[in-house]
Specification:
By secondary structure, the chain is α/β, with parallel strands linked by helices. Helices cover 38% and strands 13% of the residues. It has one domain: TIM Barrel. One of its GO terms (molecular function) is oxidoreductase activity.
């Protein structure tokens, strides 16, 4: 395992870490036994950082992390998120009392004395610009309930604001071959300012695994079924904002990236890791096989300058104009 600095926190995190949305819920059927085995396999391979949220299975993924990291709290770092259990547009959701309640509930589920990284979970930009929530987070930091804080953002504009105008230690952003916009300005600025970068949805909700066809059907409780067009939350969070059939067709044009790299999954993760500004990438998983496959990206060849240019042109000409939502 390779480790990278998480901004200016002093924490070194495994460059492939894992997100726990899929084992909490909203990605189809879950099996806690399989989830716990997969978490153990990840830690055995050197993974020391996991990202979760209080709304993943209504706290279920936090409960699972508490079980699997018991006795390892000083070695395994956890980031969790808050605000989406309430009305994200209501300023009271970000008040001192409410955020403290969210924080203490997560601490109880995680069975920890402090949260390593506490993140605002994709709030409206207006809330970020108002700024009061950052005062709340500073207070929680002084109280020792959180060690560092950051923001999971939807757009590059929001990311630039957080990096330039707040004391956040990290931002979490969507970045993958289908969502290359952060590369030009956000990534280098975060590096310059010492702000950590967590990359979520690196496989574009599975499109970049190359395993889907236009006939693929997702389970009813899988957000890839009920949020394909943004019915439940931001349309850009599912399939990188691409309409599913188009995303499948575009993924076929990317099959070449797997050559010499085992498969598209490992290649897509490798492309992200080839950016030194990145602190870690946090793919999801539901079983040991998926954990091992994702970790395989650590040993496959990096992309050449010619390959990177080819992917930039592909994004500009074939993808960019078809991404839905503000990003």
């Amino acid at each position: 395992m390779n480790y990278r600095q998480l901004g200016n926190t002093g924490i070194k995190v495994s460059e492939i870490s894992f997100g726990t949305w899929a084992i909490g819920g909203s990605w189809g059927k879950v099996n806690d036994g399989e989830s716990l085995k997969a978490l153990e396999a990840a830690m055995d391979a050197g993974v020391n950082f996991f990202d979760t949220a209080d709304v993943y299975g209504e706290g279920h993924s936090e409960d699972l992390l508490a079980k699997v990291t018991k006795g390892k709290e000083d070695k395994i770092h956890i980031a969790t998120k808050f605000c989406r259990a309430g009305d994200i547009y209501d300023p009271q959701t970000y008040s001192h009392d409410q955020v403290r309640d969210y924080c203490e509930a997560s601490l109880k589920r995680l069975n920890r004395e402090a949260i390593d990284l506490y993140q605002i979970h994709c709030p409206p930009f207006e809330i970020l610009k108002q700024g009061e929530v950052f005062t709340v987070l500073e207070d929680l930091k002084k109280e020792g309930k959180i060690r560092h804080y950051g923001v999971s953002v939807e757009t590059v504009e929001e990311g630039l604001f957080v990096v330039n105008e707040t004391k956040s230690s990290a931002i979490q952003v969507i970045f993958n071959i289908f969502r290359q916009k952060p590369e030009k300005e956000l990534l280098p600025l975060a590096k310059e300012k010492g702000v950590g970068l967590l990359i979520r949805l690196p496989l574009a909700s599975g499109l970049l695994t190359g395993k889907f066809t236009k006939d693929t059907v997702f389970e009813g409780d899988d957000h890839r079924n009920f949020n394909q067009n943004g019915e439940a939350f931001n349309v850009g969070e599912t399939f990188a904002g691409l309409e599913f059939d188009r995303g499948v067709r575009l993924s076929r044009e990317l099959e070449w990236i797997a050559e010499g790299r085992g498969n598209m999954t490992r290649a897509a993760l490798r492309w992200i890791l080839d950016h030194p500004e990145i602190s870690c990438v946090i793919p999801g998983f539901r079983n040991v096989r998926q954990v091992e496959d994702n970790l395989g990206a650590l040993t496959v060849p990096s992309f050449s300058a010619e390959e990177r240019k080819r992917l930039q042109v592909f994004y500009k000409n074939e993808v960019h104009d078809f991404i839905r939502g503000v990003y």
